[in-house]
Design the sequence.
């Protein structure tokens, strides 16, 4: 008997947009009774072979009973999902809950049969894999733990969908059918598969926007000027290698041209395929343009048009409608309110932006959420990167994306593209919001292992989110987000100038092997400034070598070559000022000669980075930028030491050494800051090659903790239907019991509402004891006198009780407690927080003023590895207090690190644990003592990285 689909509320949270393997998009949603006609139409377009594979017999058409069965679901025991493009089905998947005999069942049965059907025209696009991810998430939500499927042996594509998913599975063969069974709990392999598919799909979707085969500009004015006409001219001037079309409703019906290209009244009138459409029409006309593009099969849009979320509530709704409409046709969108995109690779030469000329080609990728900052970055790289127009320079631009309101394509998507883009060696990003720090840090960590990622974040202190940028709001302070980015290998800088400075160094120089910096030049003052700057950056400068103001370019070459040959340095800072002749007149024409001399010296040891600090030396920056290497594997672009050149053939002269581009800076502080970031990034990369692990502790009782959490949540669940349960704190006994499941012992605390109760508590706990107030205004404030320690007997305890109540108020106000004394040590605090955007974060610091007043805390994303825990303890500024500062006894940091990892495991294993506070944690010379603890529970929050792939919802 069919279950009416309205028996359970429609699960609209199952709706999602996804990126498919080829870069297109599809919408996944539950199938309802209103989809009967769509289902019939979809089935008619499926081949007989695919129908046979689905039903194991010829099945030319669906009966009315079939249609009813496949469109009526209870969304619990019987679930159907469809993938749609343009509102029409392209694939379906369903599950039916069954018991251990394979018969229809309800909960608590936790197994379901699953079956797919994908339209032949859309097979190979990854539709079935995406549907399986989403159906598995739905099933887990409904208490199903296993899927089973029967597949014909010849249906190899569907067998591959199941076997490649990464779940633990069993396979058997009986009666000519392959029987598959697999659990639905995410595994390391299933998550790895999911993330790899996500990367390929999102990278491909960006590639379709940056490397199209053909481009149409919608909104090209008939007269000179205007945004659309300017973009068309920029595309043509850059030498785009594919067909270009101009579109405007006011053009003649046939035969017109604009700027030498064919003009059309509508995208529909273009006879050839169009890969990319640049939309530059008023906002009210954009929906019509999007519909034309979608119906013509355009793959992606760059929407230059303004008038969206940056203009308030009405614009935000217009922006949502734009993205929904574009995705319904399978198109991704850069913008709206975008500055445009650029791709300088020789095979494309695309300048679909408002930039009047194509930047110098190079190895630097740029992403910005601001058009104005995009202009500034392009200008700075063009100016400071040196090199003649059109000549490949490592510090030039490979690709540029200015995303405007970032309504669809975001920095995460572009990072996925850069990850394996052979034309990009360094990625620079200007971000005004990080909508999903959890995903961003995951992608950044993987990208940073392969190539440097430099980020500057705007509006980080104002608390104001740009109105056009949709993003989940993070509750984490900027300092915490910054720490998480550095944990992921991101080179985080504070200004756009630093962004360019660091990018120039990384694009043209190798990574330093360590922090030892040699300094040489013809200015003693610049040398001393460079030395001080190195100390400020945590580098290890060698004493500056003064070549005196009489030094010639040849003197510089000799000194630099000798310094680079010295194994005692890892990098060199060269300082240079203008020469002064015998009459005291500055000589300026030596910039080119000095640049050539420095490049020649650097070519003898290209594995060490060199930076130059110069003052008013005309032509020096340009001369230093004239590096020989241009290709991906050339010395100018390698990310490590240059390979040894091949030996010359007999009778041939040895090849001339090839120099890297040497960056030049007008101030010592800028050069050394860039060098310091390179040193820290190189150290992170070396450590990333030896990743830590999450320890397994034999005494952890994960199942017992899960049972406790289930019981405690059930006891506090709201009785009224429809009331959303909220997080609630556990009592002291439940807190101690739950933490004990993970080997975290909390010192017992007994209430002392009167002196006699305090004496009884001390007798139970054993002397010596501590008497503490727990009133909110005195809690954890030993400096206010609300704590009495080392009370050895009843007399001392009663006296302390009288003093506290006499000074601060009645016992009812103070809420005194008695606790056994812990060994003396350093007071610390361990906390966790669940951020809606970043996920679970572990925080550590010293208790009191260091963490609360000075913000001296360390942060890591959970789960925390052993290497993370070690780094956390040592990364705070007050860490010397833990290691024997001023002759004090060092404390037991290994025990502290173990505590951090146990707390991390608790929160990672049980997402219902939304808050843990351990304060104070006394770290003694031997062992740790947790004196105070609190835990809050809530129904498990959504965890994006364990769920199926989705695009941001609209």
Sequence:
């Amino acid at each position: 008997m069919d279950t009416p689909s309205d028996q359970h509320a429609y699960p609209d949270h199952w709706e999602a947009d996804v990126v498919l393997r080829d870069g297109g998009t599809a919408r996944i949603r539950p199938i309802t009774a209103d989809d009967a006609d769509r289902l019939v139409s979809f089935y008619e377009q499926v081949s007989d072979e695919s129908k046979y594979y689905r039903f194991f017999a010829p099945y030319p058409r669906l009966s009315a009973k079939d249609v009813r069965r496949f469109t009526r679901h209870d969304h619990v025991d019987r679930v159907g999902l469809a993938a749609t493009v343009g509102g029409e089905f392209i694939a379906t998947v369903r599950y039916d809950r069954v018991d251990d005999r394979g018969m229809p069942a309800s909960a608590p049965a936790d197994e379901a049969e699953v079956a797919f059907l994908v339209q032949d025209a859309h097979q190979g696009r990854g539709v079935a894999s995406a549907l399986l991810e989403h159906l598995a998430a739905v099933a887990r939500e409904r208490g199903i733990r296993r899927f089973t499927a029967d597949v014909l042996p010849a249906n190899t594509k569907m067998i591959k969908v199941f076997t490649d998913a990464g779940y633990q599975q069993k396979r058997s063969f009986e009666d000519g059918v392959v029987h598959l069974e697999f659990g639905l709990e995410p595994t390391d392999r299933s998550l790895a598969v999911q993330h790899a598919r996500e990367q390929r799909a999102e990278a491909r979707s960006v590639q379709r926007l940056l490397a199209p085969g053909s481009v149409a500009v919608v909104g090209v004015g008939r007269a000179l000027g205007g945004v659309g006409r300017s973009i068309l001219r920029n595309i043509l001037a850059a030498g785009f290698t594919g067909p270009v079309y101009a579109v405007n409703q006011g053009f003649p019906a046939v035969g017109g041209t604009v700027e030498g290209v064919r003009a059309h009244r509508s995208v529909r009138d273009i006879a050839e395929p169009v890969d990319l459409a640049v939309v530059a029409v008023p906002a009210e006309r954009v929906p019509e343009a999007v519909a034309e593009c979608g119906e013509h099969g355009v793959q992606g849009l760059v929407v230059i048009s303004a008038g969206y979320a940056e203009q308030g509530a009405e614009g935000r709704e217009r922006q949502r409608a734009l993205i929904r409409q574009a995705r319904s046709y399978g198109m991704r969108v850069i913008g709206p309110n975008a500055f445009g995109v650029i791709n300088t690779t020789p095979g494309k030469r695309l300048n679909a932006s408002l930039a009047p000329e194509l930047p110098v080609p190079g190895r630097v990728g740029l992403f910005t959420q601001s058009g104005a900052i995009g202009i500034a970055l392009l200008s700075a790289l063009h100016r400071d990167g040196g090199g003649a127009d059109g000549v490949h320079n490592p510090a030039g631009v490979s690709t540029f994306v200015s995303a405007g309101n970032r309504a669809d394509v975001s920095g995460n998507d572009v990072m996925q593209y850069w990850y394996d883009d052979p034309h990009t060696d360094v990625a620079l990003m200007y971000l005004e919001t990080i909508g999903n720090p959890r995903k961003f840090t995951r992608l950044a960590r993987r990208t940073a292992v392969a190539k440097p990622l430099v980020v500057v974040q705007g509006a980080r202190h104002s608390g104001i989110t740009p109105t056009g940028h949709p993003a989940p709001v993070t509750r984490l302070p900027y300092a915490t987000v910054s720490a998480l980015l550095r944990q992921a290998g991101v080179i985080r800088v504070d200004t756009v100038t630093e962004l360019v400075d660091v990018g120039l160094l990384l694009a043209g120089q190798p990574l330093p092997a360590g922090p030892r910096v040699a300094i040489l030049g013809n200015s003693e003052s610049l040398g001393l400034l460079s030395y001080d700057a190195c100390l400020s950056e945590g580098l290890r400068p060698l004493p500056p070598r003064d070549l005196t103001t009489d030094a010639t370019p040849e003197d510089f070459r000799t000194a630099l070559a000798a310094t680079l040959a010295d194994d005692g340095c890892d990098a060199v800072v060269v300082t240079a000022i203008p020469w002064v002749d015998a009459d005291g007149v500055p000589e300026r024409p030596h910039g080119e000669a000095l640049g050539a001399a420095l490049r020649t010296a650097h070519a003898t040891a290209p594995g060490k980075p060199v930076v130059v600090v110069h003052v008013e030396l005309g032509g020096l920056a340009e001369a230093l930028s004239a590096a020989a290497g241009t290709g991906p594997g050339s010395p100018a672009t390698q990310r490590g030491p240059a390979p040894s050149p091949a030996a010359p053939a007999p009778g041939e002269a040895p090849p001339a050494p090839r120099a890297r581009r040497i960056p030049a800076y007008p101030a010592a502080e800028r050069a050394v800051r860039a060098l310091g970031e390179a040193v820290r990034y190189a150290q992170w990369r070396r450590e990333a090659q030896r990743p830590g692990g999450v320890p397994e502790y034999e005494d952890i009782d994960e199942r017992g903790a899960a049972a406790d959490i289930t019981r405690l949540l059930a006891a506090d669940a709201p009785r009224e239907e429809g009331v959303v349960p909220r997080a609630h704190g556990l009592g002291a006994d439940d807190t101690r019991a739950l933490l004990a499941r993970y080997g975290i012992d909390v010192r017992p605390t007994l209430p002392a509402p009167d002196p006699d109760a305090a004496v009884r508590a001390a007798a139970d706990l054993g002397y010596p004891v501590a008497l503490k107030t727990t009133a909110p205004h005195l809690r954890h404030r030993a400096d206010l006198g609300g704590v009495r320690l080392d009370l050895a007997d009843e007399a001392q305890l009663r006296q302390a009780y009288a003093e506290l109540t006499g000074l601060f108020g009645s016992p009812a106000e103070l809420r005194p407690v008695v606790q056994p004394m812990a060994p003396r040590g350093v007071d610390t605090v361990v906390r966790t927080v669940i951020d809606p955007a970043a996920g679970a974060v572990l925080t550590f610091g010293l208790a009191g003023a260091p963490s609360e007043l000075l913000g001296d805390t360390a942060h890591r994303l959970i789960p925390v590895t052993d290497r993370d825990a070690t780094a956390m303890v040592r990364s705070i500024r007050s860490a010397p207090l833990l290691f024997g500062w001023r002759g004090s006894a060092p404390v037991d940091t290994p025990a502290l690190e173990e505590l951090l990892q146990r707390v991390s495991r608790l929160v990672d294993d049980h997402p219902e644990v939304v808050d843990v506070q351990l304060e104070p944690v006394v770290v003694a010379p031997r062992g740790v003592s947790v004196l105070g603890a609190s835990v809050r529970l809530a129904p498990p929050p959504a965890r994006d990285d364990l769920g199926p792939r989705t695009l941001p919802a609209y």
